[in-house]
Amino acid sequence: MRIFGLLITLFCSPFLQAKSINDISNHFSREVKRELQNNNIPGGAFAIIKDGKVVSISAFGHTDKSKKRKVNQHTVFRLASVSKPFAATAATMLALENKLDLSDPIKKYVPNFELAKPGAADKIQIKHILSHSTGLMPNAYDNLLHENWSMDKIVSRFTKVTPICQPEKCYGYQNIAYGFLQPAIEASQEMSYAEFLEDRIFDPLDMKTASVGHGKFKRYKNAAKPHILRKRVKTGKRDKNGKPIRKNVWRTVNVAPDYYKVAPAAGINASITDMSKWLIANMGHKPEVLPPRLLEELTTPRIKTKKDLSRRHWREHLKDAHYGYGWRLYQFNDMPIVYHSGWVEGYRADIGYSPKSGIGFAILINAESNVINKISSRFWEEIYKSTASSKT
Prior knowledge:
Blueprint: H1 21-38, E1 43-50, E2 53-61, E3 76-78, H2 84-96, H3 126-130, H4 151-156, H5 176-179, H6 181-187, H7 193-202, E4 211-212, H8 214-219, E5 227-238, E6 244-252, H9 263-266, E7 268-271, H10 272-285, H11 292-298, E8 303-304, E9 318-323, E10 328-332, E11 335-344, E12 347-354, E13 359-365, H12 371-390
Helix pairs in contact: 1-12, 2-6, 2-11
């Protein structure tokens, strides 16, 4: 099954007057700024790509509530689960070079991984980790990442877990299990996981601020600090329906090291400039780094993700949803989108691209706000409508 062979259906809307991606970019920049201000988001940045070129990079707000440093195009954010496409790319890259077999049982690289059902752990292969089709309950033991436990101790707890289905039969999003990719990648060649990403992805794509790990993040002077919601207060204003408008009050916190324990799942740091370069490569414009066959493997649908169809702000548009290797594959009305989102304490991230339109979009914010879902879905709605209008 391929998600990219579907035709775009014509769609009528007020936005049909858009003449170019520049029109969309100018309009959208104002919309993003308004949404961030309305939600009192400390800072953020977004990038729009068209046909391998950066159309726009815009930055908003500040790195923290002190407002001493403005966010710019080189400000580093945590990518959270937007780290997963990097891990999947690394593993699949090695597989295509015959250095790693995606059909290997993950126990080959994590020998202390056992499940409550005898023999069940032996059936889980690397490819199942990549596509979240392990058969494990969703987010298995993520709560233990917040504890001062080693990964070995966390893995030992899986002996209490019984799979909810056989591998490849159901979808269950994982973070700790995704972290199992690191020893597999490291065993297949002579570099650490971080070194491999630097050597094969970050440096070749000139991603100058991209890095892996908590230690690296703490060294950045130009870094966005995380913010969590403290409370919501009344503004004294009312919306068009007469309901009181409330304002989010955010609290600056320290960067939490917990999800850095699973670097393939959520351990990468980068700026919006780096994300624009990553998008350009994934859209096929850097074949010397990410060749077509690799991109095809990553974006082949592997498991259906029905729950995604009910996502707030997206649900009225999503007609189909799957997971590939490290990427979500959405059917946005009749427009395929390759997409991923991320969320760790104090940060949100979204990235995606449309193979048909040649357009990509990434946004990073330093607050735990669902407004990012509204912004991203609105962007793709405008792209879809504009693309449909151009076909008339």
